[in-house]
Amino acid sequence: MKMNPGHGQYEQADGFAELSRRGFLGATGAAGISVAAAGSLGLRDLVALRAEDLQKKGMSVIVLWMQGGPSQFETFDPKPGHDSGGPTGAIKTAVPGIRVAEHWPLVAEQMKDIALVRSMTNREGNHQRATYQLHTGYAPTGSVKHPSIGSLVSKEIGDAQHELPQFVAIGSSRGLSGISAGFLGVGYDPFSVSSPDRPPENTTVSAGNARLDRAIGLLNNLEGEFAGSGAADRVKEHRALYAKARKLATSKKLEAFNISRESEKTRELYGDGSFGKGCLLARRLVEAGVTYIEVRSNGWDTHNDNFDRIKNLAGGVDRGYAALIADLRDRGMLDRTVVLWMGEFGRTPRINGRTGRDHYPRVFNLAISGGGVKGGQVIGSSTDDGSQVKDRPVKVEDLFSSVCYALDVDTDKEHNSPLGRPLKIVDGGEVVMELFS
Predict the structure, then answer these.
(1) What is the dihedral of CA 48, 50, 53, 54, to 10 degrees?
(2) Distance (Å, rounded) from C-alpha 425 to C-alpha 146?
(3) pLDDT tens digits, one per residue of 143-157
(4) CA-CA distance, 122 to 124, in Å (whole number)?
């Protein structure tokens, strides 16, 4: 079992995972159990206590997903004055020496809380394959449907008894087919919210509705026959899903999805765009106890008219992203919320004949904040023309190892696939420790 210095609560001993003395005391102390009493507990009990401790910390993740592959040159690794940079200028940020593309003035003001990684590198240049990998940590295969990191994290540190779903996806799922809980089961699938302006679909049933009771009773009768024919496991999973849906539909906590309850000042901070409203909804959901939220922005596949299109796209994201960071910080929530801005790959240094940029996984960038990440720094760099990683390459598995490190999630924990093969939460990779120091 692999945990990392500073955050780690486990040590390896003769191939068997044991709680370290510091981690043991930390877990038992946080759970309010005396060392003498805890000494009589087995390893399973101590690990369970540790999981409860993590849930009590209320750690969350917000992913700001730029579907299509955002150009690093027009986001956070501009190359003004070089042919690769095109006409895009660079602007100063709140941190001396760090400059970003001119389309991000509001995010630039929040740079003290943002770390940029300019040396992401990967091999997948196909949208579907890269999107899958940047959501699961694994390249797609024909034999296994891997769980998304959101599903895994919400399973590990989310509150299974919470009335709200622990994994919520906000915005269109276009281009994200196949992103699910995989073999973990539908109970860990993302709960989709198509528009932050409206309540989630099919949740308008009032508590104690007699019609709902009758409908569920009829469904149970029908499924009872189905279960008797050999589908007991499928029926059990289906009933659990309906129970969760009913719990949500009849819960007062459903108000967390209503951004109109925010003050006019706060709504103005996030702006009137769909993405900004999605960021506001994400903050409300974190406050309400949701573990993992993804807010999606589409249209970043800029093979044509790259410069004008990204100018417009960034205008819709800049305000919401900056407002989210500032709002989380001002509310004292940023330390327990990892905010990750990214897409599936970057764009080519060469500008094509349609004034666009094509797919380029060899080097791209992302931004990360919160959860113990030290803002105001840049990790890694690309070459002057942006064609290669110059120093400190960061792979997908390194990124997810780092996110799990921030959350105290054990990356070596295994789940058995339907084929009986044990799969780790993250297969390999090293924590980018510079992010935390």
Answers:
(1) -100
(2) 10
(3) 999 999 999 999 999
(4) 6
| The three-state (H, E, C) secondary structure of the chain, written as one string | CCCCCCCCCEEEECCEEEECHHHHHHHHHHCCCCHHHHCCCCHHHHHHHHHHHHHHHCCEEEEEEECCCCCCCCCCCCCCCCHHHCCCCEEECCCCCCEEECCCHHHHHCHHHCEEEEEECCCCCCHHHHHHHHHHCCCCCCCCCCCCHHHHHHHHHCCCCCCCCCEEEECCCCCCCCCCCHHHCHHHCCEEECCCCCCCCCCCCCCCCHHHHHHHHHHHHHHHHHHHHHHHHHHHHHHHHHHHHHHHHCCHHHHHHCHHHCCHHHHHHHCCCHHHHHHHHHHHHHHCCCCEEEEEECCCCCCCCHHHHHHHHHHHHHHHHHHHHHHHHHCCCHHHEEEEEECCCEECCCCCCCCCCCEECCCEEEEEECCCCCCCEEECEECCCCCCEEECCECHHHHHHHHHHHHCCCCCCEEECCCCCEEECCCCCCCCHHHHC
Give the number of residues written for the chain: 437
Q: Is the pLDDT of residue 22 over 70?
A: no
7 backbone dihedrals φ, ψ, rounded to 5°: -95, -25
CB 305, CB 355: distance < 8 Å? yes
* Cβ neighbours, 10 Å, residue 312: 11
Distance CA 384, CA 118 (A): 12
Nearest to 75 by CA among 306, 275, 304: 306
Residue of 379, 361, 359, 360 whose CA lies nearest to 369? 379
Q: Are 166 and 293 in contact (CB under 8 A)?
A: no
The answer to whether the beta carbons of residues 379 and 395 sit under 8 Å apart is no
Asked if pLDDT for residue 41 goes beyond 70, the answer is no
Backbone angles phi, psi at 54, to 5 degrees: -65, -40
Instruction: Report strand pairing: 292-297 vs 60-66.
Output: parallel
How confident is the model over 397-437, as pLDDT tens digits? 999 999 999 999 999 999 999 989 999 999 999 999 999 98
pTM (2 d.p.): 0.84
How would you classify the pairing of strands 414-416 and 422-424?
antiparallel
Taking alpha carbons only, the member of 437, 435, 436 closest to residue 379 is: 435
pLDDT of residue 216: 62
Asked if 130 and 124 count as a contact pair (C-beta separation under 8 A), the reply is yes
